[in-house]
Amino acid sequence: MNNRIWLSLAHMGEHEQEFIKEAFDTNWVVPLGPNVNGFEKDLSDYLGDNRHVVALSSGTAAIHLGLVLLGVGVGDEVICQSFTFAASANPIMYLGAKPVFVDSEKDTWNMDPVLLEEAIKDRLRKTGKLPKAIIPVHLYGMPAKMDKIMGVANRYDIPVLEDAAEAIGSELNGKRCGTFGELGVLSFNGNKMITTSGGGALVCRTEEEAGRTMFFATQARDIAPYYQHSHIGYNYRMSNICAGIGRGQMFVLDEHIARRRAIHELYSDLLKDVVGITVMQNPSNEYKSNFWLTCILVDPQLAGQTREDIRLSMEQNNIETRPLWKPMHLQPVFADAPAYVNGTSEHLFDIGLCLPSGPTLTDEDIRRVVEVIKS
Ligand SMILES: *Cc1c(COP(=O)(O)O)cnc(C)c1O
């Protein structure tokens, strides 16, 4: 049997252990310390646009605190992209608020700005209130149409919480994902572009927002010599050990992005003449996906096989692939949530497949994957 080819594995560089060792040697093993500050500075330098980054225990925690910061509470509505991972929407429920799902457009597979505006108008008509926040997602690293989405959001004065968990390093018009909205979310889970073993970050536009994020992430302690609380807090700060891994990963971030883009290019090249298979591409020069995962669409009529046929033969060949995200408006747990849909995400879910794309894959591995699709 051939070695297993995984969808997306973590890859460590040379410096992670140095930062961890330093943390041990100086006894900074708590959720604060030089690695946390260093990692946050590295991230804000990397993102640009004077953003203030707060390192947290996960991307999900970052979405949760982002919604807290935006004042989302019981009974509020929050618009969320339907085509995404459940972690984009779950924190809305943690706060007793209600998700309203909006479908995608065909170019980027992300939130459709036209449908977004229709949804806002319809919610206003039906509830008399505007949604409290909007969560677009840059799925598989592809930037959403943020210029248009921000246009709509600004017209109605609704803050945007940008889920860039899969999109560190991706750019739209030279601006990095995570820096478009009032707040942005990054994830450093094991299968993401870089990892801290587990972790995330909230990207804030203002220093004041970053301060409030740290306050809520560390149990919301009032300024007093004893423990006094005027707010409900959370234990969401990143540890100095995890941040040490993150600082090391920043040395290899550019390499990882370059490798994932090269993998996407090789797949595109090897599959370009295969009838019925389309590889997801940047829709135009303004878009620069990090190609966290390379995704294909399988037209069953033309290809003579379905997405599921391909997935199963991959499995037989010891290759891990995965269908595209199942839209949130089709999830049993969100059956009651209002949804504004146009068929795009359902269609993508039916015919789409994520191919192995991790930085440790060799060109030979990619050829092995392509051979299975062709045979
Ligand atoms: C991974 C992911 C998250 C959650 O990040 P965690 O660090 O795993 O909590 C949120 N949104 C999207 C789109 C993701 O892919």
What does this protein structure show overall?
By secondary structure, the chain is an alpha/beta fold. It folds into two domains: 16-250, Aspartate Aminotransferase, domain 2 (3-Layer(aba) Sandwich), CATH 3.40.640; 253-374, Aspartate Aminotransferase, domain 1 (Alpha-Beta Complex), CATH 3.90.1150.10. Helix content is 38%, strand content 14%. It has helices at 16-25, 34-47, 59-69, 90-94, 113-127, 146-156, 207-217, 240-250, 253-271, 300-303, 307-316, 344-351, 363-374, and strands at residues 52-56, 77-81, 98-102, 133-135, 161-163, 171-172, 175-176, 183-187, 200-204, 277-279, 287-288, 294-298, 322-323, 339-340, 352-355. It has a four-stranded mixed β-sheet with strand order 1-9-8-5. Helix 1 (16-25) packs antiparallel against helix 8, helix 2 (34-47) runs parallel beside helix 8 and helix 9 runs parallel beside helix 13. It starts with 15 loop residues before the first helix and ends with a helix. The mean pLDDT is 96. The structure holds pyridoxal-5'-phosphate. Pyridoxal-5'-phosphate binds at residues 58-60, 84-85, 87-88, 137, 163, 165-166, 187, 189, 200.
Summary of the model, kept short:
The chain has 375 residues and is α/β, with parallel strands linked by helices. Helix content is 38%, strand content 14%. It folds into 2 domains: 16-250, Aspartate Aminotransferase, domain 2 (3-Layer(aba) Sandwich), CATH 3.40.640.10; 253-374, Aspartate Aminotransferase, domain 1.
